[in-house]
Write a structure and sequence with these properties.
heterodimer, A: 543 residues, mainly alpha, Serine Threonine Protein Phosphatase 5, Tetratricopeptide repeat, three-stranded antiparallel β-sheet, 26 helices, 3 strands, B: 428 residues, 19 helices, 68% helix, 3% strand, elongated, SAC3/GANP/THP3_conserved (chain A), SAC3/GANP/THP3 conserved domain-containing protein (chain A)
């Protein structure tokens, strides 16, 4: 049970067949081909890492046609002023390939040279970015391969907006882009010693690194026609999840209409079989297909919401968090405003913040919610263009949303140690809030019991403890006491004659009533337990 | 016009930072003369001829002068954008470039720090221009309601200008931070907190306190090499302590927050009521919560807005008047939320319930045995509905927190209080 079954099976799966693309050997030995650039399917699999041997042509100086074509292509593309640089790089690449016996195994059609890629990137970025940004971001273009490093983040991002035929995504992508950039710039501001960057040795290292990585660029620039969206051709409903380490292959990616069928199938299977390992795996592959095709619409929201709910139900906070993060961006997309259940998931987020004790973020969320509510009411008073129906209003108005209000009350109860209220709220949490609360309810139970064992003397009826801390039954309560090492302080008390006679008719009830917790002796143990539970919160998969 | 340029030159040769700051400021009264004295086509030449008259001195001196010349040229562009074209966006970009040039100039000046003043003035105006430009953008885009794209920041969708400004100002900050001059008097390190504060102001506005925190980390890792905060200009120290305190406040580290804000208030210039008010807005509830200290009449009369905000609340707390407390919070809730104070107010409410418990005890002639149900009645009397379980919860909290000496007997549903000093912390 310790290894999640879907992971174990994933490994097997990778052994048997290559889901995405043919394994090509790495092109240099300077660095293991772990990077995005390698075509290895699974980085965990050592056997796959081995380069396939090249045809035994090492002794002859005969060059494959592909190399010749490659050279011609390079000369055709190069600008006159870059020609000498290009020739140098070309020579390096081919010599290296020759030295490492990879001239036959490299897919020369997909290769390019740093200088060419760099020019290409400059052309693209200049046409895309506002001039102001461009002037800020590309001052290093004269310094050779260095600028490529910066470039890459854009290149990866660029299919995002070019692939998508609608302008739905554009805002998001622009943001993303500017954020990456500002991060880079900040880094460089702290980097300090520029001279070091330009030292020839470092440059050489960097150049090598890019050679290893080069295939990343290939997909982005050569293959992908920036105007046509990436659409899969696969028609299989089910697919195992496998982390992509190279460009996706359309043959293995399911298009939207197939994915819709997949979702129906999965919903049915979940109801019938409740096999979480399988479902989680399938959902992950579905999310992956959505991502690589840049589908973000109503259906995407549905997929993430369903997966998030299933993950919650199974207490898989890590997976839940990944969905939650995506949902946050999806909900923020103005075109998708009327889809999904943003407030339901916002409520989960608040509860999750209670779990991670992230007070600052809760405070910020409260500000944000207030602000949005204000906008809504103000918009209505002004009678502006956004006349909302009652239903639309209810969808977005936080102050009247039961889930949000519940979550906020939970936060208050926790922060003011009002455990009585907290457990009441735990019992009638709307939607799946209870599952999120499961993540911290034990912690609060320990805390509450510590408080109680400090205050009540001489003892506490066990039934009262069970009731207050809202355990399902006696057994769950006892397990809890066992877990925190205080079960040994449960004492049995002689009952008065009156209740013994009652006890014979209802043995179970009286048994419960006759047990007590010796608070005085349990207290120090609980104090230790409390300190331990509050020590740290594991933030699973939170971004 | 040559007067202006002449003045700049003199200020540079005299190393008169204050004068130069004034000359390069967009609030300089002579700005319009400067902007209009020549048109763009002839400007560069004019400036060059003016600036290069009787140039003397060593080679480095001349090179330095050339950089200053660039800076002045940039400043002319800023002035032009502000006054002639009234183009706030252009003004911002030029000002940004101006700061970049000055960063370069000042980085090269080893063992002298007079010019840091100029850097301060320019970065300050850069921030203000950025804010103005962003506001203008927002107005122009106002057709759409401002629901955020990131969902995170408070409605202000990516403020590009302000974010750009942070990068340049950050550079000024690192230049000061990394000054290796051994002579403390001439070190640029004296500029650090000014730029840190500028950055904090921006980060708070952008809702990016995470970045502010990482700057705090950088500074504290350098602490050994820095003079004590108290040796810095008071304004820098106060501002820094204020932001630091507020950050701790938001993270609910209330003890440390009080400490920082306390020092901020102590250092704060007594004439600046606005700043004192800002500090006290956080400090008053902190004192209430941490030490149960009420603000003095003097404070209330000096800061009428804070009086409206807090005085009744503090009095309700003292009386243990839970109902009034809740009513007051209800009317001020949105403000408290906006200022990150709300979560603390929730905790202060607990203190109010505790006061109420104490008052019930007093009403019962300090009885040492009190039925739980009697507390319920007491709460009801002040208009608060509560059940026995919740009362028990409050009592547990008090006993656990050392605010009450005694125990609860579940069997008899009674609170049994110690004879001696049963409420060590609640009785004021």
């Amino acid at each position: 049970m310790s290894i999640p079954p879907w992971r174990a099976s994933q490994a097997n799966y990778a052994n048997n067949q290559n889901a995405y693309s043919v394994v090509t050997p790495r092109t240099t030995v300077s660095r293991p081909a772990y990077g995005l650039g390698s075509h290895n399917v699974n980085t965990h699999m050592g056997s796959n890492m081995m380069a396939t041997p090249a045809p035994a042509t090492t002794t002859t100086t005969e060059w494959p046609d592909a190399v010749k074509k490659f050279v011609t292509r390079c000369f055709a593309e190069v600008r006159p002023e870059d020609r000498s640089t290009m020739e140098g790089q070309l020579k390096d690449v081919i010599t290296q390939a020759y030295n490492h016996n990879t001239t036959w195994s490299i897919d020369w059609n997909q290769q390019s040279l740093p200088i060419l890629l760099q020019r290409r990137f400059e052309r693209e970025s200049q046409s895309q970015l506002p001039t102001q940004l461009a002037s800020l971001s590309i001052p290093v273009s004269a310094s050779g391969p260095l600028s490529k490093k910066r470039g890459r983040s854009f290149e990866i991002a660029s299919p995002n907006d070019t692939n998508h035929d609608t302008n739905k995504n554009q805002n998001n992508n622009k943001n993303k882009k500017s954020k990456t950039k500002s991060k880079k710039d900040k880094q460089s501001a702290f980097r300090g010693n520029d001279a070091e960057i330009f030292s020839s040795e470092k440059q050489e290292q960097r150049r090598k690194r890019f050679e290893t990585n080069r295939p990343t660029n290939i997909y982005d620039i050569n293959d992908a026609d920036p105007d046509s969206p990436f659409i899969g051709r696969s028609t299989t409903l089910e697919k195992r999840y496998l982390r992509l380490t190279s460009a996706p292959d359309p043959a293995n990616v399911r298009p939207l209409h197939i994915l819709k069928q997949t979702l129906d199938l999965l919903k049915r299977k979940w109801k019938e079989e409740q096999n979480y390992a399988y479902i989680c795996d399938q959902f992950k592959s579905m999310r992956q297909d959505l991502t690589v095709q840049h589908i973000s619409n109503e259906f995407t929201i549905a997929v993430y919401e369903i997966h998030a709910r299933i993950a919650l139900e199974k207490g898989d906070l890590g997976e839940y968090n990944q969905c939650q993060t995506q949902l946050k961006t999806l909900y923020a997309n103005k075109d998708l405003e009327s889809y999904g259940h943003p407030l339901e998931f916002l409520a989960y987020r608040i509860l999750y913040m209670v779990h991670t004790q992230n007070h600052a973020e809760i405070a910020e969320l409260m500000i944000q919610m207030n602000y949005e509510d204000d906008l809504l009411t103000r918009g209505e008073n002004e009678g502006s263009d956004s006349k909302l129906t009652d239903a639309q209003r209810a969808r977005r108005y936080h102050k009247t949303n039961p889930a949000i209000q519940h979550a906020l009350q939970v936060q208050t109860a926790v922060s003011t140690n009002n455990y009585h209220k907290l457990f009441k709220l735990y019992n009638d949490a709307p939607n799946m809030g209870g599952y999120v609360m499961d993540s911290f309810i034990d912690r609060e139970r320990v805390s509450a019991l510590t408080f109680m064992s400090r205050a009540y003397r001489p003892e506490l009826p066990l039934s009262f403890v069970i009731d207050t801390l809202t355990f399902e039954d006696m057994q769950e309560g006892c397990e809890f006491l066992e877990k925190y090492d205080v079960a040994k302080f449960v004492i049995k008390k002689e009952l008065s004659s009156q209740s013994t006679s009652e006890g014979e008719s209802q043995p179970e009830n009286t048994v419960a009533c006759s047990y007590y917790l010796d608070t005085k002796n349990a207290y120090p143990y609980l104090e230790v337990a409390k300190r331990n539970v509050f020590k740290k919160v594991d933030i699973k998969g939170q971004i | 016009m040559s007067q202006h340029i002449q003045a700049v030159k003199t200020a540079i040769t005299d190393k008169d930072g204050a004068a130069l700051t004034q000359l390069l400021s967009i609030t300089n009264p002579q700005l319009s003369d400067f902007a209009f004295f020549t048109n763009g086509a002839t400007f560069t030449n004019d400036l060059k001829s003016e600036f290069n008259q009787n140039r003397t001195g060593s080679k480095t001196n001349i090179a330095n002068m050339l950089l200053w010349h660039d800076a002045l040229a940039k400043h002319w562009q800023v002035a032009n954008a502000v006054l002639k074209d009234q183009d706030i966006n252009a003004a911002f970009s030029y000002q940004n470039q101006l700061l970049q040039i000055l960063n370069r100039v000042i980085e090269q000046m080893l063992s002298e720090n007079w010019a840091v003043k100029v850097l301060k003035g320019v970065s300050r105006e850069l921030r203000m221009l950025a804010v103005m430009a962003d506001e203008q953008d927002k107005k122009l885009n106002r057709i759409r309601p401002a629901v955020t794209d990131s969902g995170e920041s408070c409605g202000e969708e990516s403020e590009m200008r302000l974010e750009q400004a942070t990068r340049t100002i950050n550079r000024s900050f690192t230049i000061c931070l990394n000054d290796r001059t051994t002579n403390t008097a001439l070190s640029k390190k004296w500029g650090i907190y000014y730029f840190v504060n500028e950055l904090f102001k921006i980060y708070f506005q952008l809702n990016k306190r995470g970045l502010a925190k990482s700057i705090l980390k950088v500074i504290s890792s350098m602490q050994v090499n820095l003079p004590s905060l108290l040796e810095y200009p008071k304004s820098d120290a106060v501002c820094h302590l204020y932001y630091w305190g507020v950050m701790l406040f938001i993270d609910q580290d209330y003890t440390k927050a009080e400490e920082k804000l306390d020092s901020a208030l102590r250092l704060c210039y007594k004439g600046s009521e606005k700043n004192q008010e800002l500090i006290l807005m956080y400090l008053i509830p902190l004192k209430l919560y941490n030490k149960r200290l009420q603000a003095t009449e003097e404070i209330w009369s000096k800061f009428p807005r804070l009086m409206v905000l807090y005085q009744d609340l503090a009095r309700a707390l003292k009386r243990g008047d839970l109902r009034q407390f809740d009513e007051l919070v209800a009317t001020r809730g949105n403000f408290f939320i906006k200022k990150f104070i709300y979560l603390l107010i929730e905790k202060i409410r607990v203190l109010c319930t505790e006061r109420l418990i104490y008052r019930v005890y007093r009403c019962l002639d300090s009885a040492t045995r009190i039925k739980i149900s009697q507390f319920v009645v007491g709460f009801k009397f002040t208009g608060v509905e509560i059940d026995e379980c919740e009362i028990e919860g409050i009592l547990c909290n008090m006993i656990y927190g050392g605010k009450m000496k005694g125990y609860i007997s579940r069997e008899k549903m009674t609170l049994v209080l110690s004879n001696k000093d049963p409420f060590p912390a609640v009785a004021l």
